[in-house]
Design brief:
about 140 residues; Pnp Oxidase, Chain A; about 20% helix; alpha+beta; 3 helices
């Protein structure tokens, strides 16, 4: 298990997560997505015309996996679960939104090396404030 400080650093640094949603027929649907961690919530910038978006609008339950490592002894990750909230206009056009300002600045820097996020009129923000987080870090496992 990661310490809270290790988990915070890990979620801040990693770039891609895997998002699991529930389809109308109950089957799982998993997609990769970029994200921002703000210390308490995971922010997902999703296409509003995606299957993921439609499924979350219908059923806000979600599981998100962030993991890293190649060899067994390098594996580490976190699973975050809960129910999402939609924040801001959809699709996002860049209207001033104080809650989104720091998230968009972080996202723009992390993924585009820009100071502000260019809005394409196709994406919008989803916030997951996890109800549960499970983490692991096999690098901590003693090898024989």
């Amino acid at each position: 298990m990661m310490t809270p400080e290790e988990l915070d650093e890990f979620l801040t640094e990693e770039r891609t997560c895997r998002v699991a949603t529930v389809a109308a027929d109950g089957t799982p649907h998993i997609t990769p997505l970029w994200f921002v961690w703000d210390g308490t919530a995971l922010w997902l910038y999703s296409l509003t015309r995606s299957k993921r978006w439609a499924e979350l609008r219908r059923d806000g339950r979600i599981a998100v996996m962030v993991d890293a490592g190649h060899g067994y002894g390098e594996l580490r990750g976190a699973e975050l679960t809960g129910t999402v909230e939609f924040v801001g206009e959809a699709p996002r056009t860049g209207e001033p939104h104080p809650e989104l300002a720091p998230v968009e600045e972080t996202f723009a820097g992390k993924y585009f090396c820009l100071e502000s996020l260019p809005h394409d009129g196709r994406h919008a923000w989803i916030r997951l404030t996890p109800s549960a987080i499970r983490s692991w870090d096999f690098r901590k496992t003693a090898t024989a």
